[in-house]
Amino acid sequence: MSVLRIAKPVYDAIRAHGEETYPHECCGALLGRGAADGWRIEAAVKAGNTRTDSPKNRYQIAPGELVKIEREARSRGLSIAGFYHSHPDHPAQWSATDFAEAHWLGCSYVITAVAEGSAAVTNSFLLAGTTEEDKRYEQETIEVFATSEAASESLTAPTESKKA
Asked: I want to staple 40 with a disulfide (CB 3.0 to 4.6 A). Which of 5, 6, 112, 156 is the partner?
């Protein structure tokens, strides 16, 4: 079984983000480093939910924002390790829509149930497989670790790097 290791300040910030956006879904990207048995998440970046048709139970990250997040990750020596979102008043279990719209094979998808405005259960699922046709979610164990590096840049919008 895959293990998602996540710094405590990042884990707490992801859950708080779900509470902040309630009753709508929050969303963002997970930044980390790959290991033999899963990802080690060191930061997360809030993203705007661009879904206008049903933001209470759907999310989407704009492609341009995703490119900025990926550039920020690379500049910090990290990779996009996955994504997170909340399920307002719904279990922390992936939906058919979550599965259909997941395309980053090998990445983790973290879901936090937010019950009546309070973060409850948080689960993670690895999008396994080698092609879109054989993709599948596999439950991951979440291991929260303490860190002296409080991931101070976690959950901030990526900044454009300026050339001198």
From this structure: 5
Residue 71 tokens read as 């550039």
Q: What span, in angstroms and rounded, lies between the C-alpha atoms of 14 and 84?
A: 8
State the average pLDDT over residues 47-57: 83
Query: How would residue 161 be classed by pLDDT, with cut points 50, 70 and 90?
Result: very low
Task: Kindly state whether residue 156 falls inside one of the protein's structural domains.
Answer: no
CATH number of the domain that residue 116 is part of: 3.40.140.10
Distance of CA 94 to the CA centre of its chain: 13
* pTM (two decimals): 0.88
Overall average pLDDT of the 40-60 stretch: 88
In a domain, 118, yes or no: yes
Report the 10 Å Cβ neighbour count for 27. 23
Tell whether 76 is covered by a domain.
yes
